[in-house]
Amino acid sequence: MYDKDQRYTGFAMPFVLRTALLFLIALLSLIVTGCRYTSAPADLLQKPSISKDQQEIIAALQKAMPKYSVLMLPFRDDSKEAIRLIDVNGDGEEEAVVTYYNEFNIPELLILKKSGDSWKPWVVIEQPTARGMEWLKFVDLNNDGHLELLVGWVGSFESPNTLELYSFQTKGERNQKGSMSIKPIEAIPYSYAETGMLGDNGETMLAVVTEQGSKQLEESSSYQLVLYEWKGGTIRPKARLALNNTVNNYDHMLIGNISEQQKGIVVEGSYGAHGTYTTMLLWDGSTLDIIYPNERLGQDGISLTTVFSEDFNGDGIVELQIKKETPDSKGLPYSDTSFTTYWQQWNGKHFVTKGEQLLDYSYGYKLDIPDSWRGRYTWEYGSNEYEAAVFYYWNEQSEQKSELATLYAIPQKIWSTHDQEWKEEGRNYRTVMIDSGNVYAISFVSSIPPQLQQIDRQIVEEMLKVEINFSSYISALD
């Protein structure tokens, strides 16, 4: 999910620096404002406005950064900018934090402080053995009003990835180049990590997935989740739990409320060729317990395609994203198999379905399944051009199947042609959304097959009623 080669600008010459930084700022401003593909090219190419403060930072970077350095973004980061303003030491003044590769292609982090009307280098954070920066996180771990810095360094073939904790309250010292630097107060071998509020008083804790063994050396990996808390001026292990060792690697984690009254952690990892393995852990203040999957309930934790659990409905509680094959997909090749997404929430005793959706990242839309369709439908990818999905009535007991509607995603530039042709054909259709250069239209069947039994016909008639307000069920995927 992360682009691991996001490098932007060269520093060989001042002019190149300025031009590249202008492009970077323009690009990042588009990201922040959520500009979509429907924007006109002329809009995208307009010269961005740069404040005096930004100009001063650019000038300071020209002097401070090593020659031939390139700005970069960490693989995983809350920010979308290689140059960001943050009050890192709690003095009420923002510092400029810059991430880049130095002239030896080694990741570094430079922090500049404002002194009068100019910006001056303050601290360099470096790890000479690293070849990448996997994670960057500013967080107040001990609730003292001062931010700590977590940096996940990508190790070389011989050395593991390392998670280092830095405090800006520690005293700096000069490195070999004469620049002021601070040393980490803790270094942990790790595979993946995340922070979140788990304490009763809102304390932030750090969860780290560690890995023993090496896939490069064809050894079986052994994964463990270690939960850390801040204590005595550093982080100390609070709890440990062994994780499933059959995953390829763990690459997603959520920490927070897993029910109205309980806190916990959701850890997900890639599994097999296309799948995901999901684990939900309950935190009771002293121990971690697995509540999903549960083999006794027939739960294996495996989705055959990629899933990312999240708080999908904004209620402050994490829901598990479970994808299941449509009921008539058995026997089909994986490329032709369609999946429906179910959002499952833990209520303290069992899981309750909070949402049912069709998520299509190819066509860029999500569809909330209407209540009258649930348990009565199936769907598949269309066989004709621009057919995003074809929906059917489905009777699970009799395996009776009858077409309901077809959803189309047609490029705007050719929509008028299709619109005219459909009108001439007398086709029943309506436009339900326009987004990202596409017109989305739904075409419901005009009649119910006479061979359907009366009870099936009544259900289909009820399902067809959603045509009037179908646009309220569909929206664009971010």
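(the above was protein one; protein two follows)
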Amino acid sequence: MKYAFPDNFWWGSASSALQTEGAREGETTWDYWFAREPNRFHNGVGPQQTSTFYQHWKTDIQLLKQLNHNSFRTSISWARLIPDGIGEVNPDAVDFYHQVIDELNEQGITPFITLFHFDMPMAMQEIGGWENRDVVDAYARYAQICFELFGDRVLHWFTFNEPIVPVEGGYLYDFHYPNVVDFRRAATVAYHTVLAHAKAVQAYRAGHYAGEIGIVLNLTPSYPRSQNPTDVKAAHVADLMFNRSFLDPVLRGEYPADLVALLKSYDQLPSCKPEDGFLIAEGKIDLLGINFYQPRRVKCRDSAVNPQAPFMPEWFFDSYEMPGRKMNPYRGWEIYAPGIYDILINLRDNYGNPRCFISENGMGVENEQRFIENGQINDQYRIEFISEHLTWLHKGISEGCNCLGYHMWTFIDNWSWCNAYKNRYGFIQLDLETQQRTIKKSGEWFAATALNNSFEKE
């Protein structure tokens, strides 16, 4: 069967500054953490060892063109542009981003630019990071500088990539710096991120730029084990905390009342100012990026909460392992392609069918060299993964969902936070020793799909 997509559909991939560019002038939280605890990073590989986009941007963009990308998302590094977060703008960084943006446009590849992709300048973290409202103001200034510098040639802006992840990783579950486990502080970080987002949107609107502004959220549909009311309630709370805590403010301009009531009843609300509500209402977006990797399956708790344990989301639900689920064993994630359809239908039915696109979707696999045939990685499993997700995406579009494109994570195998190069995600294989790039079979398949604006599947 042939699956054809709407005209002008965005075909491309996504990456980030920190994961691809390499060394920069300004220190980030990742540089700082790696210098102190390299043992927390897979094989002791840190953020200096990336896919060297800073040196190879021109030839990499040629490869994007070879893969028939008509769009590409990456980020600007706040720490590269303004090394201390608040001071002088680095002219070398300005030149670099000008060149990248100009080259993308020249090659017919529309640049999608994210302002913050987990890379907090260390100077900003030292004064509290997102816990400090001064950092919110510093970010708003940084955003405005980016709009002024590049807003004439970048027409698709995103304030944050997966803003829930620094909250979870840095302040709840100890997998990002600053390795805090404290729900109230996590809630403050999340809240201030929403305020920072809204201030950037405000600045963009005030500048009357020609493009649009949005945010990229990693949405994980919460599926209850059963329709028993206790399981349904558990899934609802998980959805409130992990999806709607950002989805509702950016699409509706306000927080879900039941989330506010729940956190208030446990004295976990961040401190708010009276004018915050007006600011959040002004943060409504033009375009939503959706990162989808896995579902969240939950059930009601089987045991009582330890009252001495830190307050956590898991006070309200347990994870549920669905029998027979399909797994990616390398990442430990369930593969559930219908989730992409469920997200789109939820947006259509409950959020006014916003303009959106799939901004990330991907499959990380360890030791892909096993699959080399005639000098090329034959990653048929990735082709099946993508085509399965695109099939469900196509169904959503055919039922009226306003989804405008599909970006894969990622273009070239890149450095991935604490996992470094353990799992590879790229359309293009990266040889870490030589930095040589070799297109995988999935890259050829995607190039053909993008060229034809369609693919065939039995």
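Reviewer note on protein two: DSSP finds 15 helices and 21 strands in the chain.
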